[in-house]
Amino acid sequence: MLSTIDLQAQAVDEDGEVIYIPNFVTEEEESYLIRKINDTPHQSWKSLANRRLQIWGGLMTRKNVLLSQSLPPFVEVYPNVIDRLQLTGAFCTSTHGAPNHIIVNEYLPGQGIMPHQDGPAYHPVVATISLGSHTAFHYYKYRTGSPSQDATDVFSPGPQGEARIIDHTPVMSVLLEPRSVIITSGSMYTSHLHGIGNEIVDYFTAGSDDTDPPKFADFNVTVANWRLLGRKDMKEAVINGRFLQRSIRYSLTCRDVEKVANSALLKR
Ligand SMILES: O=C(O)CCC(=O)C(=O)O
Ligand SMILES: [Fe+2]
Q: What is the tens place of the pLDDT at every residue in 108-138?
């Protein structure tokens, strides 16, 4: 059983705002979940420019109120992902004590997600389960000062819709293995951004010793969770400076929406 004590051992950063747990679901559960995701009717998918997604648990109003619907049995019964997330203790201070909303993203190799923040509708914790493929996941901070002359800046809208410049060197980068969960909270949720590049292959640079950890070659940043990796083949590729080819990845981003409409009142 996962307990809060285990969580500390799984922390990627010093403050424990990013927790990485490999093998959070078994291979059988992973295949079952991928089958269920693909069994859903075509119209359940929402196509975006660079990925497809499904929303489970209900839609949100413009005022960030969840018009709640039950989550599918393949996250509540078998495999019981919600209870398992609750047991980590990561949602112990959230309104409902557990996620009530899941966005499922599908990425083909070469697809990613621009640096962004998940926003204020949710309790500031997100648990992301990876299925099918690994990916490289980066955390970013905003940069102060004026835009650079070479027009390479990436902007993100701030709370008042103002453009804020994103520092394009990640503050932290992690390798998400298939079947793992990554839990982001604290300032990594509230004041940083996160994103996935649109690589087809992720290349690594070997470190020379313990004080020189392996890096993502394309970004020249440390694989911050390299010690916590659970798969022998992936850990070896990282440590020995080889590469990993992406395949289709599904992510289940599990969050607790704070405000939920009272469905009994809505039906009246
Ligand atoms: O796929 C992922 O790991 C991240 C997805 C994400 O950031 C989101 O859906 O907000
Ligand atoms: Fe996100």
A: 999 999 999 998 999 999 999 999 999 999 9
